[in-house]
Amino acid sequence: MAKILNRIIVTIVYLFLLAPIIAVVIISFNDSKSLAIEFGAPSFEWYQSILENTDLMDGARVSLITAVITAVVVLLLGVPVALAIARYEFPGKAAVSGFFLSPLLVPGVVLGLGLLLVFQPVGLVGTYPGIVLAHFGVTVPYVIRTTLSSLTTSDMRCEEAARVHGANSFTTFRRVTLPIIAPGILAGGVMAFIISFDEAVISLFVAGSGHTTLPVEMFRYLQYRSDPGLAALSAILIALSVVIVLIIERAVGLRKVVNS
Predict the structure, then answer these.
(1) Among 91, 117, 207, 258, which one is least packed by beta carbons within 10 Å?
(2) Does the keyword Membrane apply (predicted)?
């Protein structure tokens, strides 16, 4: 009886969590112009309409470019910081760690306004460097945390064994440390990419009219229209997210990434 009750509760929770996604997918196939669930003949009209919308496609291109660059930059800078925090003792270590994790404590609106005031005088508003710098601040804590988690749970004896056998620091990192912490790095990179691609509040302040990201374009679209077009776009993004998860699962295993 307890097992049956437990399964019922779990099923209800899953349905509750999946209900918004299911609703979005159903609405995306509506053949009417109402943003409501209608069970009729499926139509791909809104998928075609969205793919032909130049503003949304340009926003998707900007978001994709920004997310890829942000993920690469965050990995190049965040992983060394995590290594320094985990492996070395130096003055101000706690302050450095707190500095890189502090963006998680600042509301997005406050951070976006502050970045706008800083970027405006130097001409970074509405540029790729400006958007990447803004997204760097909100994504680097995740890379540092996932990498630190992998480093703190890794076996130091493997690195010591490599040094005993004559490997220098770079070889030890490349052949021993990096493979061990790879799931954590991958997890941080994926999170940085998704957060950057999905960031809306900060992008509203720093993107301007020069390079508008997809979330900003979606907000603008919703201001003037209430058709299932955004539902179709959301369904496409959901499908892409599933593909990314499957690729991670095939590459390193989803459980390794999550547990890191």
Answers:
(1) 91
(2) yes
Cα 176 to Cα 21, 78, 120, 167, distances in angstroms: 41, 19, 44, 10
Q: Determine the Cα–Cα distance for residues 228 and 45; give it in Å rounded to an integer.
A: 9
Comparison of pLDDT for 54 and 165, the residue scoring more: 54
Identify the residue whose tokens are 């030890």: 172
Helix (H, G, I), strand (E, B) or coil at 125: coil
pLDDT at 70: 93
Task: Find out whether 51 and 57 touch, Cβ atoms under 8 Å.
Answer: yes
Q: What angle separates helix 93-101 from helix 128-153, to the nearest 10 degrees?
A: 130
Mean pLDDT of the chain: 82
Residue type, 129: P
Q: What is the dihedral of CA 102, 104, 109, 110, to 10 degrees?
A: -20
In sequence order, which residues have a C-beta less than 8 Å from that of residue 91 and are 6 or more positions away? none
Distance of CA 124 to CAs 109, 110, 128, 209, Å? Answer: 18, 18, 8, 12
pLDDT tens per residue, range 204-242: 888 876 678 888 888 888 888 778 888 888 888 888 888
Q: What is the mean pLDDT of residues 83-98?
A: 81
- Closest C-alpha among 110, 134, 136 to residue 122: 134
Q: Is-contact 163 123, C-beta < 8 A?
A: no
Separation between Cα atoms, residue 212 and residue 246, nearest integer Å:
29
pTM over 0.90: no
- Residues 252 and 186: beta-carbon distance below 8 Å: yes
Across the range 245-254, mean pLDDT stands at: 67
